Every structure is written in structure tokens, then in C-alpha cells.
Amino acid sequence: MEAFPIPADTYKLGFIGAGKMAESVARGVVQSGVLPASRIRTSSHSNPLRRQVFESFGVRVLPKNDDVVEESDVVIFSVKPQVVKDVVLQLKPLLSKKKLLVSVAAGVKLKDLQEWAGNSRFIRVMPNTPAAVGEAASVMSLGGAATEEDGNLIANLFGSVGKIWKADEKLFDAITGLSGSGPAYIYLAIEALADGGVAAGLPRELALGLASQTVLGAASMASKTGKHPGQLKDDVASPGGTTITGIHELEKGGFRSVLMNAVVAATKRSRELS
Ligand SMILES: NC(=O)c1ccc[n+]([C@@H]2O[C@H](COP(=O)([O-])OP(=O)(O)OC[C@H]3O[C@@H](n4cnc5c(N)ncnc54)[C@H](OP(=O)(O)O)[C@@H]3O)[C@@H](O)[C@H]2O)c1
Question: Which residue positions does the secretion signal occupy (predicted)?
């Protein structure tokens, strides 16, 4: 297979679809210094406000999708899943093997993307909404002609908006059920913790602040100390204390199995939808 390395110091990045996810990734890439804004381009579709958003941090907004592809070495398809087929097919004549193609469209398989593009130098990435605050949990899977260097380049780009792992594409429905849908499960947990605080006499604003910061702090402890969460739990549950009393109530309510069931049910739904 002929190799067309992407020049690390000079490559240009294009987004097809100037929406929320494209904005999060573009901002993260610029803010972290991975690429200057002058090497990023997109085009605005029907909503003129999106042009202003991208131009406000220095990204060039070109008239058409074709211009974006022609001027980019790495092209990220960030349109909604239901339009990705049409968009890729329209651009097919321009999608040469010299370009590295990426899709973030939820539920759209590499096999289809590669077929529509006529190019298997494709990488599928599943980010999640905390990309907007630089804390995404993303997973990527490499298509047939994507090289290890291509994977490293995409890990570097998406690493600027959070963490990224590599996984077999057959795991993507389970990934959707866990990290794709997971932020919403945790929003519910934060709201419920705050409600508990209010029920126990705290003012609403204080309760919400404490609940979100507690979730953030616990997540940081789990990811930064490298300790197993069971160990972290044991470390804070003293005999006959308040924490073990609260944990006992959670266990009575089936807290763990409810969370497990949510991930399994969302995985099943993702499989049905794709
Ligand atoms: N947001 C997330 O956290 C998240 C997480 C995981 C995966 N994703 C994936 O990311 C993709 C984008 O999601 P999003 O949340 O960023 O959606 P979004 O904000 O609606 O962005 C989609 C963009 O695509 C544009 N567009 C539509 N048709 C187009 C065309 N023919 N040519 C060029 N642009 C076109 C839209 O422009 P107009 O509005 O002007 O039509 C819009 O700006 C989706 O496939 C989604 O599955 C998103």
C-alpha cells in the first residue's frame, strides 16, 4: 500500500459541519496549542451564526464543503448521522487517499463510511458532550487503510478535549451505552444528591454546588490515584459511620444494578438504532 504521511508540522484540518462538536474540538485544538486556528477551516451550511462563532476564534469559514476538503489534509465529518451519507457521497471525488478522513457521527459504521467515501483511510471517533468543557471521554476505531501514525494524530487532536482510547468497532454500542449516554445518568445523580441535600435542610444553590463538585472530585480521585473505586470507597467508610450508613441505603435501593441495567439497556438501544 502506498503511504501518504500527513505532515505533522503543516497539515490542515477541516470540519464538514460547523456544529457544536466541531466547535468543541476546534476550540480545544487551538487552546491547547495542538494547531493554530489558521490551519483549521470549515464552511457554514444554513445558519449564519455558526460562521461568526468559528471566525471569533480565528477559524477560516469557506463558502463550500468542497473548498474545505480541497484545502485540508485531515477532514472531520461532524454533521448529524442522518446526513453523513449524502455529504460523504457528494464529496467522494475529492476524498483521495492522501487525506485522512474522520467521522464523529454516532451509530454510523466504518464499513459504510469507507464504502461511501471510496477510501478506507477513515477513523471513527465516538466523543461525548463534555468535549465542550475539555473533559470528553472519546474512543476511536481505525479503518482498513488508516495507519498507526494516523491514529496518533487523531489521538492528539481529540486528546485536546479530554481523554481518548482505541477500541474495536464492535464495542461501539456498549461505548455509546456507557460514555455516550453516561453524562445524562450523572446529571440525574447530581440533581438527586442536591435534592437530598435540600431535603436535609441545605439551601438549593449550596446543595447543587456541593453535589457537582463532589461528583467531579470523586471522578478525579478515581482517575488520578489509579486506585480501584472499591478501595476508595473502603477508605472513606469507617465502622458504624455516616458513609457506610448512606451506602447501605444505596445498596437497599439497588443502586449498582440500576446503573448496570442503564448501560446494558442503552447499549441494546444503540444496537437497534444502528
Ligand atoms: N454533541 C455531542 O456531544 C456529540 C457527541 C458524540 C457524537 N456527536 C456527533 O457529532 C455530530 C455532530 O453533532 P453536533 O452535536 O455537533 O450537531 P450540530 O450542532 O447540529 O451540528 C451539525 C452541523 O452540521 C451542519 N450541516 C448540516 N447539513 C450539512 C451539510 N450538508 N453540509 C455541511 N454542514 C451541514 C449543520 O448546519 P446547519 O445548522 O446550518 O444546517 C450544523 O452546523 C453528530 O453526528 C453526532 O452524532 C456529537
Answer: none
